Amino acid sequence: MTEITPALVEKAYIALVSCDRDEAAQYWAEDVRFSVPGRHGQAGWHEGLDALLAFRQALTDAAGGDFQVELVTSMISGNENMDVVKVHAVRPGAPAGSTSPFDVLDALGVQVFRWEDGRVVEGRAGFFGDGATNYDQWWSPLGADGRRRDL
After folding, report:
1. Residue 151 above 90 pLDDT?
2. pLDDT tens digit string along 30-71?
3. C-beta neighbour count of 127 within 10 angstroms
4. N or C: which end of the chain has fewer CB within 10 A?
5. How confident is the model at residue 140 (pLDDT cuts 50, 70, 90)?
6. CA torsion angle for 56, 103, 43, 51 (degrees, to 10)?
7. Rounded CA gap, 91 and 94, in Å?
8. HSE on the CB side for 56, CA within 13 Å?
9. Alpha helix (H) ranges present in the chain?
């Protein structure tokens, strides 16, 4: 059994964010399942490495290439880890200085992963307080003015 360490967790995040399939496959199982919170088109279970990478790419694209995840702390117990994360993203075309939750995502959340043989096999994410609402609004197909926008 591979020991889950903070360094391994960080490598898994870096590999996922890269959206490089070969790199991600070193840390994420082919049949990984990941639950995205919310009430929007990306919410729910993403099943399989390709689906998870497609979701991660959608995050990057929706943020104009700059979806930031800061790992605040990681707690490890056996084959599971729980990470507190801060996420930040701004929609392309957002007015300068906008604080609208439809334009700017700033949320504190948690991600819980289960590992087998050195790879993540299941993950779940959630946000605290207003972060959950902010995440839904940021993914909304509507802008703050109620007009539809490209996702």
Report:
1. no
2. 999 999 999 888 999 999 999 999 999 999 999 999 999 999
3. 20
4. N
5. confident
6. -20
7. 6
8. 22
9. 6-18, 21-24, 49-62, 130-139
- The total number of residues shown for the chain amounts to 151
The DSSP letter of residue 142 is: B
Instruction: Please give the biggest Cα pair distance in the chain.
Output: 52
Would you call 73 exposed, middle or buried from its count of C-beta atoms within 10 A (0-12, 13-18, 19+)? Answer: exposed
Residue 137, classified by CB atoms within 10 Å of its CB into exposed (0-12), middle (13-18) or buried (19+), is buried
Q: At what angle do helices 6-18 and 49-62 cross, to 10 degrees?
A: 70
The pair of structure tokens assigned to 119 is 């790879």
Structure tokens at 37: 């919170």
pLDDT in tens, 59-108: 999 999 999 999 999 999 999 999 999 999 999 988 899 999 999 999 99
Q: How many CA atoms lie within 13 A of 123 on its CB side?
A: 26
For residue 141, the 8-state DSSP code is S
Tokens of 117: 């043989």
Q: Which two tokens stand for residue 36?
A: 């995205």
